[in-house]
Amino acid sequence: MLVAEGRVNKQVADTLRISEWTVSTHLRRIFAKLGVDTRAAMVSRCLPYGILVRNLGTGCDSLVTEVLDVRGNTVSSGRIAVPRSSAIDELVDFEDRAMPPRGWTAVTTPTGSGMTVANRAAGAHGGRRGMMARDVSTPETASRRAAIERTLPVGRSEWLGEGWFKPTRLDLGAGQGLYLLHFLSVAGAGVAAGVLRNGTTYRAGLAIGRPGAKHASTVSGVEITVDSWRKWSLRLRRLGTREATAILEVDGSEALRVGWDASVFRLDTFRAGIASAPLGTASRLLADEIRVASPDDR
Q1: What 3-state class would DSSP assign to 264?
Q2: Are 283 and 135 a contacting pair, CB within 8 Å?
Q3: Per-residue pLDDT tens for 197-231?
Q4: What pLDDT, on the 0 to 100 scale, is given for residue 38?
Q5: Is 153 exposed, middle or buried (0-12, 13-18, 19+ CB in 10 A)?
Q6: Is the pLDDT confidence value at 241 over 70?
Q7: What's the predicted TM-score (pTM) here?
Q8: Distance of alpha carbon 196 from alpha carbon 246, whole angstroms
Q9: What are the tens digits of pLDDT across the range 83-108?
Q10: 139: Cβ–Cβ under 8 A, 6 or more apart, which residues?
Q11: DSSP labels for 14-83?
Q12: How many other C-beta atoms can be found within 10 angstroms of the C-beta atom of residue 52?
């Protein structure tokens, strides 16, 4: 990281309290293992960053990237094709009585029983129909879910997931959470907005998980109560970079903002409802006007 920050050998040596000769020796060995001969090339190989490029115009179909270090050394990539991605904006209002909605899949826990997701008049918020998700599953061996999900195109830098939710039963233990909006990947990475148990209250929060690791939760100051409709929005920005941001809004006001390294994230699924709940809990939820959207990245 010291080399990536542009520090010369003497600065690296002073920081690590070693000799310049030792720094030079280590760098020569790293160059040899990576098959490179400049610091810029080494940084390019060791620290892959996502790069967001906007306003390319319709005539641009490929790019070449170049890394420049403080000594003027450069390394260039091969030609990179620019994907042609149009904007996405899908709203599910459940008025057609279908379950799952067209283009979506209904998902429930594969073990145990008592997990249901259905189109019901009782689930309506703005119209006549909505979604009812129910979790009273016993026994089970996996995290629980009763939701709808949609496959997403990969490679997008921004996503928005939102909907109206009304929990009618919440039975969570200390520190447990019920995810309502969940962007996830096959590898296990994900970003979720949901209800988190904080002491004796329930609060809106965010959870972010890297592949193979447990989701880390952050709690906001917004209290969530049973039998109340609230509009939830989860905005993801700068995906694919080391400076991604997740923004949680409740009823149109920002409740929480969390930054994280999303350079290894490849989100490919969006889930809404009881998107994920821990073992040994129970919940019921009404949901309506579920929306997922992404702008034209060009």
Answers
A1: coil
A2: yes
A3: 998 999 999 999 876 566 678 899 999 999 999 99
A4: 78
A5: exposed
A6: yes
A7: 0.75
A8: 17
A9: 666 789 999 999 999 999 999 999 98
A10: 111, 112
A11: HHHTS-HHHHHHHHHHHHHHHT--SHHHHHHHH-----------TT--EE--EEE-TTS-EEE---EE--
A12: 13
> Does domain 88-294 correspond to CATH entry 2.40.10.240?
no
CA distance 207 to 214: 9
User: Which amino acid, one-letter code, is at 172?
Assistant: L
Residues of the chain within CATH 2.60.120.200 domain(s) are 88-294
H-helix or E-strand spanning residue 154: none
Q: Are 148 and 166 a contacting pair, CB within 8 Å?
A: no
SS3 letters for 22-38?
Answer: HHHHHHHHHHHHHCCCC
**157 φψ region: left (φ > 0), alpha (ψ -120 to 50), beta (else):** alpha
Distance of CA 59 to the CA centre of its chain: 31
My answer on whether omega of the bond before 48 falls inside 30° of 0, hence cis, is no
Secondary structure (DSSP) of 180-192:
EEEEE-TTS-EEE
